[in-house]
Amino acid sequence: MYRTVALIARMLRQCVQLQSLASSGPILTSNRAPLSTSNRSNTANIEDGPDLGDFIQGSITKGDTWANYKHKLKREPGENERLRLPPWLKTEIPRGQNYSRLKESLRSKKLYTVCEEARCPNMSTCWGGGEDHVATATIMVLGDTCTRACRFCSIKTSRKPPPPDPNEPVNTAVAVCDWGIDYVVLTSVDRDDLPDGGAAHFAQTVTEIKRIKPNLLVECLTGDFGGDLEGVKTVAASGLDVYAHNIEVVEYVHPDKFKQWEEYGNSLGFVYTASGPLVRSSYKAGEYFVKKYLNRRKQEKLKQQQQYVSSLLSTRTT
């Protein structure tokens, strides 16, 4: 917090200096009292940091890739030093027409997204859309309060959250189908307080979506249901198109290894493997790729059915 405020203060001072130079007047100098010894090191760090010109030119992280990054990426036990966010983990501030449209729709329908509740760094990518993927939001059902308290997550927690809204499946289906999108991701908080972990509520949401818009592709990113496979079966039989589940990773992975894991995943036979520093729950949903893959598979199945019907007709004719 101190570094942020100090950096803003320095930028403001430079703006004053630039304005003074433009008017051919004297450069303003500070008449503040001498700094104490404890503050001198902080002041020196500020003076050596990026200036206003760096922000204007966008050269703060130029050449600062993972291959030549020299700063520490991991704190050892007992260390209190604050680590800097490496450049490959920095993302753009969410903005754009699709982002604004999705946010307004969510607020009007009183729906929650894991994107917002968990402060996902990929909102600008997933919500903004683009040439290579459609705008997608991950809807969070079963409320906005989780029964678990994972330290890496920003979603609020409680041992006894409010009961699920019985109207949520219908409201979610109406809102999603009203967006005009063709791919949606459903996820949820963990509800260990419910006998089935919320599986029936999850499945009902999918059923309602398919009832209103059968061609809408639905991906369900579920929790572990406390290890109960009956919950998995309930959701899997709901009519979804993609069943997804996160694999928890504890060990720190350096960026140069993500490509290796992608190749390994593909070698196991997975149709699509998303591997990278910013990959989170359904990162970009793989929606463009999965959409093309599922549509192609449906077309092939339809073609086989047509060929089968044609063969039956020809057999009867002969």
UniProtKB/TrEMBL annotation:
Residues 29-50 are annotated as: Disordered. InterPro entries: Aldolase_TIM (IPR013785), LIAS_N (IPR031691), Lipoyl_synth (IPR003698), rSAM (IPR007197), rSAM_sf (IPR058240). It is found in: Mitochondrion. The keyword Metal-binding applies. Residues 129-318 form the Radical SAM core domain. Keywords: 4Fe-4S, Iron, Iron-sulfur, Metal-binding, S-adenosyl-L-methionine. It comes from the Eukaryota. Residues 29-45 have a biased composition (Polar residues). One of its GO terms (cellular component) is mitochondrion. SUPFAM superfamilies: Radical SAM enzymes. Its cofactor is [4Fe-4S] cluster. Pfam families: LIAS_N, Radical_SAM. PROSITE patterns: RADICAL_SAM (PS51918). GO terms for molecular function: 4 iron, 4 sulfur cluster binding; lipoate synthase activity; metal ion binding. This is Radical SAM core domain-containing protein.
